[in-house]
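Quick start: what a row looks like.
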Amino acid sequence: VCALVILDRILKTRPDDARDQVQLTAWNVHRLALCCVMFAAKFNEDRTWCNSQYARIGGIDALELNGYERFLFRFLGFRLSVDSDEYQLYLKHLQAIADVSITVPDDPSVQALAEKSVGEKRLAVHRSSGAKPCFKGLVRGVS
């Protein structure tokens, strides 16, 4: 729940400089989620794994994860705490999604899977360009 709150904060934060706006893409979503889980664990748990273990689990380089951690921690203004009201609100939303009797909007990935050939073409173009999925696409204008 705390990781979801942190992720939401990242996506809702509107920095003064528009080029620092975080954008969620298919190429950075798992890195962003990994960082949020890591932040939540480090903030709330007494004993946690080291960054190299999180990086191995997430399938990325430890130095890359360290850079993401530094960037996002500063981006959040070093604010990782989640108050009880905010926690309860997000928990209620997650419970509602998990409840089979409540209608949840269609998953956008279903449409993406239906258009698989288009996605495969995009992936082939991405792979042939030699580009690596990273946080460079996360922050507009940062090289």
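That is the whole record. Confidence is low (pLDDT under 50) at residues 131-143. DSSP finds seven helices and no strands in the chain.
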